[in-house]
Every structure is written in structure tokens, then in C-alpha cells.
Amino acid sequence: MLAEFRALAETAGYVVVGEFNLHGRGSARYGISSGRVEEIHTSISVNSAEVVLISPGVNSSQMFRLMDLWKVEVRNRAQVILEIFDLHAKTPRAKLQIEEARLRYEMPFLRHQLRKKLQKEHTGARPIGEQIGAGEDILSLKIKELRRRIAVIHAKISKTSESETLLRKGRVDADYLEVALAGYTNAGKSTLHDALTGSNVEISDSLFTTLSTKVAQLEIPGKRVVIADSVGFISDLPKSLLEAFTTTLVEIGDADLIVLVVDGSDPVEEMKRKVNACFETFERVRINTPKIMIALNKIDLIDNEQVAARVTLLHDYCTNVVPISAKSRTNVDTLMNEIRKSLPLWETYIVHLPYGRESMALLSWIHEVALVEEELYEEGSIAVRAQLSPSVTQKLFKTLPEGSIKRNE
């Protein structure tokens, strides 16, 4: 976990000059042992450090005591993640979500500061008519201002949610199937998205590159499919931060198929920890596991024996596991074929179209929305055998005369 926290710090733009394991029981005053407090204090002086990052974190009272003692900023894991989100957010909705999460997270710290101000300025009951202190007044106003801003942001997010829901509904109405890429952060989702679609999504080795859902068309003959690249998961993500990305999680939950991207170059125990974190996240947002398949990524970094061992291990989570390297495009075609087979099945029908201008337009539409297997030009009509989605089938039943469309037995 220390290595992961270091990666988070570096992704947020920090230069790490020292690391300390905080194992053992911490003191009530600081949340970490007194010995470690002194060691870190010395390291701050030696390295001229400006910020101390603590994971998983200490409570607000302990943070303020440490800042008073060390004379530097102290930030916890959740604040570092928020900083990363803020750096990489691109869409207006993502920026609003991050701002709301940050303000909600800051609220308890401001309340703590207000309580501390009250304790310093008043040792007993406030005399009648006495005005509140300047510091207390500023903090109270700041808290009220934050509450108003959170309410405004929440209203704006609700409006963008409505528009994005309409976009998703439009894709469904147009017979698009949806595939969602999910996985632990830095597993290679964006690289795989680019390999599958050629969409040139931003690719980086840093964590949390993708903070909003990116959707592109996936070329599968005879079917309309879009694939979404979404924010990476991370273990023990605070509930407030998880809720800040409802849109991304809804996109994943509404998908017809989820491709869970797993970093195969990780040591086995680390890989298991990350996969467990992903499935725990699925449970938290009530995503059904049957529609999940796994892409074991980065196999170019391990040998064949290691690949086989990891595939076997991952079968405990999912029956369909495809080893790939998104970077070198190894087995990407195999993965595409498995995606195609895992999507909802279309049934094959024989459609009879009478000759005429309207029928030719309808035939052209069938070619666009279905997988046409055969066309036979008969006397007085055209017989088309095609794989049809349920919605296309329903439209043809409504459009054509009775008996014109029959299931191919």
C-alpha cells in the first residue's frame, strides 16, 4: 500500500523526499506514534519538506495538531485523490463533481476550526451583547458560503445528469449496445480503448488519467456498439468520492457487457487485492457479475507460465478471461471476438419485402441496423435472411404486412 500511496503522491505532482511506515498503535493526540512524529519532524527539517501526506489519514483534530507542531501542511489520502481528480478533470460535469466532493470533504475541517476558535475566544458563557470574534465570524460565513455553493453545484449536476440520460436513451433507441471498460486505476483501460477503437484517448502511466466517461463506436459487423472508458477504481475510496462519480458508475451499470481490465504485470497478491477492490466496487453500486468478462492486460511484461497461472486464478472471479497486451495489440482481435460473442444474441429472421421504392429504402435500413446473411430476389419480393435485434424485429413487425417476417428455424 505504501507503493500505491507514493504513486498517488507523484501523480498529484508531489516530489517524494521521504517515506515512513506508520504501523503500530498511534497516540490519541496525533494519530501516529510519538516516535514517528519526531522522526518525521526531523525529516521535514533535513529535507525542507513543504507538505506531509498521510495514508489512510488522521482525524481533523490530529491533523491540526500535527500542522501546529511541524509547521507544514498535512494532507490525507482522500485529499490527495481529490487533487488528482482536479488536475485531470476535463468535462464540466467532472469538474462540478470534484468541486462538490472537495467542498463536502472540507466542511468537517472548517467546523473543527470553528470549534477551536470558540474554545480559544471564550472560556465561559459569552456575556450578553458581546459580539462574536472576527475569526469566528469569518469561519461561520465561510461554512454558510460552502453550503450555498454545494447546493448550486448539486442543481447543476442534476441538469447535466438529465442531458446525459437522454444521450444514453438515444443510443438505446438507435439500437446501440454498450460495452464498458472498468478496472483498477492504471490497469491500461485507456490504452485498450484506443486499441479497440483508434479513438486516441489520452494515455498515461500516471493514475486516474480518465476521470469522465469517454464513449466511442466499436466496429463489430452487423451491430451498433459503443464502448466507454471510465474512471479507475481504487481500494478504500471514501464514500463521498465514490458518490461524486455517479455518472461513470451508472454508465458501467447500464452497459450490456463490462470488460474488467486487470494489470497482469502486478505480483499475484497485488493483482488479487486490486481485483477484489473492483468487485467490491461492483457490489457497492449493485452491478451484476454475470455480464462481466476479464481482459488480463500487460502480458508482454510476464512469461507464458505466469500468464497461465494468472488466468487460472482469475477464473475464480469470472469464467471468461482473455490474456492481452493493449500496448502491443497482442490478442486484441481475440478479445474483440469474445466481446462480440458475449453481447446479447440477435435472432435470425427471414424478411420478405415487396418490390418498390419504399422496400428498397427499408432494405437499406436493414443493412445498417442488422447483420444481413443472404438476399434472394424472388418473383414479386426480396427475401432477406438477417440477424435482428429485438427492437429492430419489433419495428419490422409493425411496418410490414402480417406474415412478412418469420423466425428462421
Please, could you describe this protein's structure?
The protein is an alpha/beta fold and 409 residues long. The protein has 14 helices and twelve strands. It has helices spanning 2-11, 34-47, 60-70, 77-88, 92-121, 134-173, 189-197, 239-243, 246-254, 268-284, 304-314, 332-342, 357-369, 390-399; strands at 51-54, 73-76, 176-183, 214-220, 223-229, 257-263, 292-297, 321-323, 347-354, 371-378, 381-388, 405-407. The strands form three sheets. A six-stranded mixed beta sheet has the order 4-5-3-6-7-8, with helices on both faces. Helix 4 packs antiparallel against helix 5 (92-121) and helix 5 (92-121) runs antiparallel to helix 6. Residues 125-132 have low confidence and may be disordered.
Describe the secondary structure blueprint for this structure.
Layout lengths: L1 H10 L22 H14 L3 E4 L5 H11 L2 E4 H12 L3 H30 L12 H40 L2 E8 L5 H9 L16 E7 L2 E7 L9 H5 L2 H9 L2 E7 L4 H17 L7 E6 L6 H11 L6 E3 L8 H11 L4 E8 L2 H13 L1 E8 L2 E8 L1 H10 L5 E3 L2
Parallel strand pairs: 1-2, 3-5, 3-6, 6-7, 7-8
Antiparallel strand pairs: 4-5, 9-11, 9-12, 10-11
